[in-house]
Design a protein that fits this description.
By secondary structure, the chain is mainly alpha-helical. It has a domain at about 25-85. About 75% of the residues lie in helices and about 0% in strands. The chain has three helices and no strands.
């Protein structure tokens, strides 16, 4: 793939969308599974890092890197979301037991 001025814009837009997608994912993941789902994001992030190393296309490789580190960041956010729920900022799942 030839790098153009639009490649950077595309990476920026896709990064914005990926990060924006992870915000509701954090809320839903904590609501349904609590913090015990952190390992899923670790696995997704690790797969993304490995895939980004083997993809030759710079655009796709960059997006896989953004996805990977957004997944790693989500681990931290799931635990912080638990604190936000405990403070009453977000609703508790009535079907789950809380500590």
């Amino acid at each position: 793939m030839e790098l153009t001025a639009f490649t950077g814009l595309g990476i920026g837009l896709a990064t914005f969308l990926i990060i924006g997608l992870f915000h509701p994912v954090v809320i839903k993941a904590e609501y349904y599974w609590g913090t015990k789902c952190w390992w899923i994001f670790l696995v997704l992030g690790t797969i993304g890092v490995i895939a980004s190393l083997f993809v030759e296309n710079v655009f796709i490789s960059a997006l896989l890197g953004v996805f990977s580190f957004s997944s790693f960041w989500t681990i931290k956010e799931v635990f912080e979301q638990r604190e936000r729920v405990n403070k009453g900022w977000f609703p508790r799942n009535p079907k789950r037991k809380y500590e």
